[in-house]
Amino acid sequence: MIPGTAERKTEKLVVIGAGMASGRVLEHLMTEAPGAFDVTLFNAEPRGNYNRIMLSPVLSGEKTYAEIVTHDDDWYAQQGIDCRFGESIVKIDRANKVVYSNAGGVPYDKLVIATGSAPFIIPVPGKDLPGVVSYRDLDDTNTMIAAARPGAQAVVIGGGLLGLEAAAGLALRGMEVTVIHLMGHLMERQLDPSAGYLLQKALEARGIRIHCKGATKAILGTDRVEAVALEDGTVYGADLVVMAVGIRPETRIATDAHLEVARGITVDDALRTSDPAIWAVGECVEHDKQLFGLVAPLYDQARVVAASLLGHEAAFRPVQTATKLKVTGCDLFSAGDFAEGPGREDIVFRDPGRGVYKRLVIEGDRLIGAVMYGDTADGGWFFGLIKDGTDISAMRDTLIFGPAFQGGPSADPLAAVAALPPEAEICGCNGVCKGKIVSAIEGGATTLDAVRAQTKASSSCGTCTGLVEQVLAVTMGDAFVLPTAQPMCKCTRHTHEDVRRLIKAQGLKSIPAVMQELGWTSVGGCASCRPALNYYLLSDWPLDYTDDRQARFVNERNHANIQKDGTYSVVPRMWGGVTTPDELRAIADAADRYNVPMVKVTGGQRIDLLGVRKEDLPAIWADFNAAGMVSGHAYSKGLRTVKTCVGSEFCRFGTQDSTGLGIRLEKHLWGSWTPAKVKLGVSGCPRNCAEATCKDIGIVCVDSGYQISVAGAAGMDVKETELLCTVATEDEVMEIVSAFVQLYRENSRYLHRIYKFVAKTGLDWCKAQVVADLDNRRALAARFELSQSVYRTDPWAEHAAPRERAKWQPLADLSLEAAE
Amino acid sequence: MTRYLDIGPLDDIPREGARVVKTAMGCVAVFRTATDAVFALDDRCPHKGGPLSEGIVHGTSVTCPLHAWVFDMGTGAAQGADEGQVATYDVRVEAGRVLLDTSRILRERAA
Questions:
Q1: Tens digits of residue pLDDT in A69-102
Q2: Binary contact (A550, B16; C-beta < 8 A)
Q3: How far apart are CA A519 and CA A148, in angstroms?
Q4: Does residue B110 surpass a pLDDT of 70?
Q5: How many degrees, rounded to 5, is the angle at CA A87 between CA A86 and CA A91?
Q6: What does residue A780 show for φ and ψ, rounded to 5 degrees?
Q7: Contacts of B48 in chain A (CB under 8 A)
Q8: Which chain A residues touch B110 with a CB distance below 8 Å?
Q9: Distance of alpha carbon A775 from alpha carbon A763, whole angstroms
Q10: Which candidate among A78, A274, A433, B15 keeps its CA 20 to 30 Å from the CA of A28?
């Protein structure tokens, strides 16, 4: 009993759970109405309240447990709270208002349930092995600290806030850490892909391996955990596995007591459950169909519960919350709602050099969301604008620059460059200062190229190109005219050529990486740049770029050619135009089975099934695969057909085996992706029955060997090929054709066919690269072969797999749904 | 009056992609953006009837796969020099499920 309150009627309050939410409830009660309640506090953990969100600094060794305790034994004693730590509640008897633990019953007048949440454990084989832990409380943290040995391997499953904090903490303890994340980018609930990319880069820089789009299949080990296996076949060795894939409200005792429970314990605005004598607070509750995991709304709830317990009117109104990652050196901030939506607009700022990204989402005259990485100093100010619903229309132009810029004059970039002192560095790669560029200009270098040649400024990575141009403009005044090279699209000022060069120079391997590092001015690109970027990445980093399936044009996504009515045409490969009775039977059977309205021979010597419905694609592919056939890629920006004539095998004029060479070429080149479609022809003699001299690459067999010619066209433009070289053997044909295709793949602008590529670079340059320079030819051919080691595969097999098929069906069928 | 029907989990729609819902009035394309906003539009470009669900999604716009007309998914209006409009439907996400307002689709059928 509390001294001085003995004469007051005290109510019996029982609190189940000593976490951060109930801790705050008790604080409010003790300050606002000391002695109003006789409090009994149960906690399943054998300790009182500590600041759970500071477990990460404890894990990393930056703090100790003692430093994060919020209420120590003295505090509980001073408040006269009867602490039952380490006792779990087994039952609530609502009729008699008694809660039972293993140790017996305690009566209550009012009851607060604050059981928090339990970590979600993915039900994979091996989840119960020793060495697999969740990350929720101090015991988990201590288990992880005990297991952390320098050089040992840890796998963290889950790339959300908690998982990344665990990963960073374990890395600081010297472990080799791998993070497996199911989604395409880290912290996808708080960050957009650009910020997620920067975060990933920062974590990788400190040695943490990140595996996105990774689905855990099983945890391996006999006596204890040894490795983690993913669906894609990857296996990571592991001495410790941390599961941090999410939490679910802990509602068991509420459910057993027949309180209303949805995903969490259902509460009203006063945080009362369906029983008016019982309140619930924290991560275990569901309010207005929402769950809560961050601390700010939990503290709001605590204030409301305390008021409500004391009989005051109070209502919980969820407000926007802000997130920060507690990993030293990774500055990120996200607040509000940054999803795209009708009527919403974005303001994006990127500073690739400093690794800064900021994005504001505006609706009407209000700021509704903010994501920032690298420079989060203004996060609090933006968060205030979001919470207060401030009208930002007057400061919209300079909003992204933060509070310091409000009310000031609008910045003129040229004035800023003019104000730079001569020793200011312009080009970081080559250490070129402004003064050196100005003297080069004054000495007659009046174009960007001339400045590049003389000073080396902007000649390496090129990100300072804009700055060099501004120096030119400031120095020369009106005499300088910006070069009008066509940018790739409206999302960037870079040309296709610059983008290709920078992807290589900077080692960029995903679309968000390109958009961030090259300063894209749109949020997610457009229908023009996205397929191009996806191709450039594939071409430069065939083994380890991040593919963006949704950036592919429909034909390359569905591996069939879309027709005017939305149906597709399907063309199985027919190597060199040769088929068999079995293949023809399989094609005929498929045409019957799927009611194909038209079966047609194409101009490329194959059979086209026109009018196939999207839903039928996986099944028809499976049938063709079963008959030994693969996709003809008749839809792709890639190798399509190799047209042949019969050659020396049957023809009385044929000089070489043109059919055999065509098959050999097709088997070598198939599956490869190129900037635009590529078609080949091989004719057995100069009569040219395969019409090889109007193909992208044509080979004409002659008595002495093979004439290889390139850059023909028979489309919008009609053009005869030009002779690249004449060689004596089939093997030389194979090597030169692969090298030339690779030259085209690595250097052409997306959607330019070979004849446009050759017109731009010149036939002589191509000859120098693949004919004269033997080392270069071999290197090109080797890079082509490396790429083919992964792309010479049939896309149909993957998409026709039974578990993939549902994706090809409508999401729902309401056509038979009754009208009201 | 609105009538929301649960048409499936959000996760069944790829980010920056779409799935269709079949109705007696034709297909409705349900899109999901990179940041999980959802939109529902008639799956038919007013130009030549192209299936918008197979277009490339960028931001809150979609480009028709047949002739590259671009539509604002929020309003259904064609962008740029093109003129045209696609019908839109209310759609929202609750507890990871996609709810589509089918009142218009089903009423028109009854009429």
A1: 888 888 999 999 999 999 999 999 999 999 999 8
A2: yes
A3: 40
A4: no
A5: 155
A6: -60, -45
A7: 564
A8: 819-820
A9: 19
A10: A274
pTM for this predicted structure: 0.65
How far off is chain A from B27, nearest CA to CA, in Å? Answer: 9
Measured between alpha carbons, how far is A672 from A680 in angstroms, rounded to an integer? 13
User: Which segments of A102-152 are extended strands (E)?
Assistant: 104-107, 110-113, 117-119, 132-134
Cβ pair B20:A565 closer than 8 A: no
> Which residue from A minimizes the CA distance to B90?
A342
Taking contacts as CB-CB distances below 8 angstroms, the residues of chain A near B40 are none
- Cα distance between residue A776 and residue A644, in whole Å: 29
Q: A264-272: which pairs have CB atoms within 8 A and are 24 or more residues apart?
A: A264/A291, A265/A113, A269/A304, A269/A315, A269/A316, A269/A317, A270/A304, A270/A305, A270/A308, A270/A313, A270/A314, A270/A315, A270/A316, A271/A301, A271/A304, A271/A305, A271/A308, A271/A316, A272/A308
Alpha-carbon distance of A333 to A325, in angstroms, equals 7
State pLDDT tens for residues A744-765: 999 999 999 999 999 988 999 9
φ, ψ of residue A775 in degrees (nearest 5): -60, -45
CB within 8 Å: A564 and B36: no
Q: For residue A769, give the nearest of A798, A740, A792 by alpha carbon.
A: A740
Q: Evaluate the CA torsion angle A509, A510, A511, A516 in order and state its sign.
A: negative
The minimal CB distance from A814 to the residues B15, B21, B61 is found for B21
Tell me the pLDDT tens digit for each residue of A119-146: 888 899 999 999 999 988 899 999 899 8
- Number of Cβ pairs closer than 8 Å across A and B? 132
User: Annotation-wise, does A685 bind a ligand?
Assistant: yes
Kindly identify which residue of chain A lies nearest to residue B9, measuring between CA atoms: A811
Q: What is the C-alpha to C-alpha distance for residues A192 and A587, in angstroms, rounded to an integer?
A: 46
- Residues of A in CB contact (< 8 Å) with B are 184, 192-193, 263, 289, 338-344, 346, 522-527, 530-531, 548-551, 553-554, 557-558, 562, 564-566, 807, 810-820
* Residue A398 three-state SS: helix
> What are the distances in angstroms from CA A258 to CA A33, A129, A252, A272, A274?
31, 34, 10, 14, 9
Distance CA A297, CA A283 (A): 10
> Nearest CB to B22: which of A342, A344, A815?
A815
- Give the C-alpha separation, A288 to A249, whole Å: 15
